[in-house]
Design a protein that fits this description.
This protein is of the alpha+beta class. The chain has twelve helices and six strands. The strands form two sheets. The chain has a four-stranded antiparallel beta sheet with strand order 3-4-6-5. A hairpin with a 5-residue loop joins strand 3 and strand 4. The radius of gyration is 21 Å and the shape is globular.
Amino acid sequence: MSSLADLPVATHGSLDRPLRIGEIEIPCYVLPDETRVLTLRGLHGALQMSHGGGQGGVRKIAALMERFAKKGIDINDLAVRANHPIRFLAPHGGLAATGYDATLLPDICSAILKASQAGALDKRLSYLAQRAEVLQHGFATVGIIALVDEATGFQEIRAKDALQAYLEKFLRHELAAWVQRFPLEFFRELYRLKRWPWSGSSRRPGVVGHYIKDLVYERLGPGVIEELEARNPSDGKGRRKARHHQWLTEDIGHPALAQHMHTLIGFMRAEDDWEAFKSRFYRAFPKRGDNLQLAW
C-alpha cells in the first residue's frame, strides 16, 4: 500500500461542499490530473448501502456487480473498476481517503436499473432501483463531471465557454418541426392533482404554461431555461413563435426531456394532493440555487 507521501493531494473539494442531487449528498474532489472522484462512503450513502471501511467496503459494490453478472446482466467492467478504488488526500490533509472515478456511479446506476427491469433485483434490494433512478436523472440533465466541478468549485477555472459548449449540444440552432413531446398522461395527472375536470381538450388554462416552465424547463439543466427564453421569447402576451422543446437537440436535449418527464409523472402518480406533490418533487429536484426545505 502506498505511503501518504505517494498519494495525490486533491486540488479542489471539501466536506462542506458535497455534490448534491436532491436530498443526496456525496463528498467529491478533483485530483491534480483532473480526475473527479467520489468518496467510497459517499458512494455507499448515495445508494443507501451500509458503509464498511477498508477492503470490505470496496467489496460491497464489486460483489453487487458480480451478483448481477451471474444473473445475466451485462455489467461490462464494473466489477473490476469497483475493485480498484483511488486512494488520495483531501486538500485539508488528514488520513488517506478512498474513492472512485466519478463516472463509476452513473454506470452502477445503469446496471442497477437494467437488473431491475430484467427482474434480477432481489426484493430486499428493490430500494436500489428507486435510488438509482433519482441519481440517474441528475446525471442525465447535467452529467457527473459537471456536477462534481460545480460542487468543488473547479468549474471556476474551467474554460469560460464550457457552459456554452454544453448548451450547444443541448439546444439546436434552428427550429425543428413540432412533434408531441409531452405525454398526455402528464396533463391528466396535472388536472387530477389540481382537481380540475378533465375533458381531454388541448385548450388548457394559461397557468399550465407556468407549471411546465417550473416543473420541466427550469430543472432540465444549467442555463437551459435562460437560453430558451432568449431564443424563443414571449411577445409580452404569453405567446411564443414555437414550443420550447422544438429547440432541443435529438441526441441530448430530447432524451433528457423524456427522462425528466418519466420521473416527473412518477412523482405525480404517487400523490393525491398538489401541494404534497410539489413539496416532494421540489425536494428531489430543486432548481439550481434553490434552498432545500427542511425534512418533515
